[in-house]
Write a structure and sequence with these properties.
The protein is built from one helix and 17 strands. By secondary structure, the chain is mostly beta strands. The protein has one domain. The strands form three sheets. Strands 1, 3, 4, 7, 9, 10, 11, 13, 14, 15, 16 and 17 form a twelve-stranded antiparallel β-sheet that branches. A hairpin with a 2-residue loop joins strand 3 and strand 4. It starts with 20 loop residues before the first strand and ends in a 19-residue tail after the last strand.
């Protein structure tokens, strides 16, 4: 897509952003269906709304966000999370995304939380040119008490999948004290006794749904809850820009 052709400035609640630097093992993602599309969907399961004259891939719904421990520092502004993490805290985000991650050798950053959940290093907000840059970055992260980081050698490709409950695929994301992003890929046996039962998750809500009223669907229109914040990316996926708002959001993950 031609980012320069977008309105400047963008009308609220949209905002332009750039993607982060992918971790060395992070070899890409696959979206199987848009949020609200039934789990038994077999064809045309992804929704492509038209926004500002371009087609976008609707792939997620932002649910809520907050920090752990709960007295950390984070805010939500206009439905978009503004992480301001400090040492010893993580910013956590709950999303609905039917999203698989492909991770490849030679190594993967992994942190294990106090409930046994494991998180894979996904991106950094800063350029990381070498493994040494990554090491300097990750070795200076200050995790909450009881969280343990390790550098894991990968000998084969791994596929990390979302947590499925009914029709919904849940994807859990954290940001550390250096603002690196991590996704959960090993889930505690009891997901209700995990990070997401132990912090205040502030709901994302936008009151104006007019942005999608004239969108043309090429798949079943998702049955999202009223005011839900949807996530979309420019199509074809260029990894260059995203929008924030009802159908599109700046991604912090």
């Amino acid at each position: 897509m031609n980012v320069s052709a977008l309105p400047n400035p963008l009308p609220p609640p949209y905002a332009l952003s750039a993607t982060d630097t992918a971790a060395p093992a992070n070899n890409g993602t696959c979206f199987s269906r848009s949020p609200g599309v039934p789990a038994n969907c077999t064809e045309n399961c992804v929704y492509y709304p038209e926004i500002f004259g371009d087609s976008w891939l609707l792939f997620g719904e932002l649910v809520c966000a907050g920090t752990f421990p709960a007295n950390g520092s984070s805010t939500t502004t206009g439905g978009s999370l503004q992480p301001t993490n400090i040492p010893g805290y993580v910013t956590a985000t709950m999303t609905k995304q039917c999203k698989d991650y492909k991770y490849v050798p030679p190594w993967m950053g992994v942190v294990t939380d106090q409930w046994g959940g494991k998180w894979a290093l996904q991106t950094s907000e800063k350029p990381m040119a070498t493994d040494g840059d990554w090491a300097n970055n990750l070795n200076t992260v200050v995790w909450p008490a009881g969280w343990v980081y390790e550098n894991v050698t990968l000998n084969t490709t791994e596929i990390h999948v979302s947590y499925l409950m009914g029709n919904d695929c849940w994807s859990f994301i954290i940001r550390d004290s250096n603002n690196n992003a991590w996704h959960m890929f090993v889930y505690p046996e009891n997901i209700t006794n995990s990070l997401f039962a132990n912090f205040d998750c502030i709901p994302f809500k936008l009151s104006d749904a007019a942005a999608i009223s004239n969108a043309t669907a090429s798949a079943p229109k998702p049955s999202a809850s009223s005011g839900a914040v949807m996530i979309a990316a420019g199509w074809p996926l260029t990894g260059v820009a995203m929008l924030t708002g009802l159908l599109a959001s700046k991604l912090f993950f």
